[in-house]
């Protein structure tokens, strides 16, 4: 993710990381493209439904973009921020900040999930966050496609 808290310490680990990235980054791009295409199909279905209701193309494009923008903001920024607020003990604004910095792929490392020693996290917490990141990146890719 780019937060710098977990990194290979040996030369062998660093070399492995380079080769893993050579394959992992393109595979991630393919994955995000596929998920983006699936989401694009939802956009087309929504557009077709609105077209059948007699709306003009420009209005359909605007409403589709607005719908996926609002839904994505809710699902990928607002709701996870509440989740981070409860689980990490951050303020809501810190959760929004973390969500935005993470999904914009900036990843400063000033906030990292699942790393506070005084907190008890459920076993799949970091895995769930990783899945949220993947689908959040796919949502951002969809917005760029729209």
From TrEMBL:
Keywords: Ion channel, Ion transport, Membrane, Potassium, Transmembrane, Transmembrane helix, Transport. It comes from Glareola pratincola. The chain crosses the membrane at residues 12-32, 62-83, 95-113, 125-144. This is KCNK5 protein. It comes from the Eukaryota. It is found in: Membrane. GO terms for molecular function: outward rectifier potassium channel activity; potassium ion leak channel activity. It holds the Pfam family Ion_trans_2. It is a multi-pass membrane protein.
